[in-house]
Amino acid sequence: MRALIVDRSVPGGLRVAEAPEPVPTPGQALIRVTATSLNFGEVRHGIDSAPEGAVLGWDAAGVVVRAAADGSGPAVGTSVVTLGEDGGWAELRAVRTDWIGVVPEGADPGAISTIPVAGATALRALDRVGPLLGRRVLVTGATGGVGRYAVQLARLGGAYVIAATGDPARHGDGLRALGAHEVVESPARSGGRLDGVLDMLGGAPLVEAFDQLGEGGTLVAVGHSTGEGESFPFGALFGGADRHDRSLVTFLLLCCDGLHRDLTWLAGQVAGGTLSPEIAWRGGWDDAAEAVTALLERRLHGKAVLDLA
To answer: Taking every annotated instance into account, which residue ranges of this chain make up the domain Enoyl reductase (ER) (predicted)?
Structure first.
């Protein structure tokens, strides 16, 4: 089968080549991939650390060509969206059925392929904040793939949404169109105590955002794009009358139960137009180096999609 394999001798670290077809276990279905989306984390860290010739890729949309032998998951011919630790950048992918969502017929595979990491991470992070109706929620790094889904989902859940971006003048209109009530430059400008924070950045912005939490507030550490550690000044973790019972939580998406339900629901929302996939770049197999470079240089605000069909 054709695949994008790791080859650090070429621009972008990926090239199209022949690779062995995956052999599904009894609990896996075999998917013919039609589109995949790239994530900053897998591009930034995966290509550098993977063995030469490896087939990476977390996100992929396609069609079931062999159902799971154990009877679980969707039938042959079903349009699906899939999540996995690797294997998404190839014509064929074997994937656990509990990481497969069913997609409405006729949906754009490229749009659907943006869902697994970005959409499901945003959804699960908001679950950890708790009930959203009437709550004040801050999303840092709001112009990225996860951030854009988080803004939309938080607004859909009834939250008062504050989006933080380093350039509000440039990105403010777009983030407001997605559902943000306010767009600010930094967490310190969020304008009052917060009930929840979804932080995509880590480092100093996370520390600053945690300081804005009010009583019962939760910060979910989602991303770490600053590449910096977190240093809390003395007193930052003290309780107080308006700072009682604050939490900082983490999670790993692939350890979450019920992801097939999340992926199916999110696919329906994207296919129906309730959620925008926010595709910032789209191309084919041979354009992968361009997408990788744009992601690493932080020139993309949204998702990068490769059409493999």
So the answer is: 9-306
Type of residue at 91? E
Residues 221 and 149 both lie in one domain: yes
pLDDT tens for each residue of 99-147: 999 999 999 999 999 999 999 999 999 999 999 999 999 999 999 999 9
Separation in Å, CA 133 to CA 153, 177, 178, 217, 292? 12, 19, 17, 14, 38
What CATH number is given to the structural domain containing 93?
3.90.180.10
| Contact by Cβ (8 Å): 132, 154 | yes
Assess if residue 193 is contained within a domain. yes
Residue 86: Cβ within 10 Å count = 16
Residue 236 lies in a domain: yes
* CB neighbours of residue 62 within 10 Å: 28
Q: Rounded to two decimals, what is the model's pTM?
A: 0.95
Residue 146 CA to residue 163 CA, distance in Å, equals: 12
What is the Cβ-side half-sphere exposure of residue 184, based on CA atoms within 13 angstroms?
18
Are 248 and 131 found together in one domain? yes
What is the residue type of 107?
A: A
Q: Write out the residue range of the structural domain in which residue 178 sits.
A: 119-252
Distance CA 106, CA 297 (A): 34
Do 239 and 128 belong to one domain? yes
Residue 219: strand pairing partners: 197, 248
Asked if residue 234 and residue 136 are part of one domain, the reply reads yes
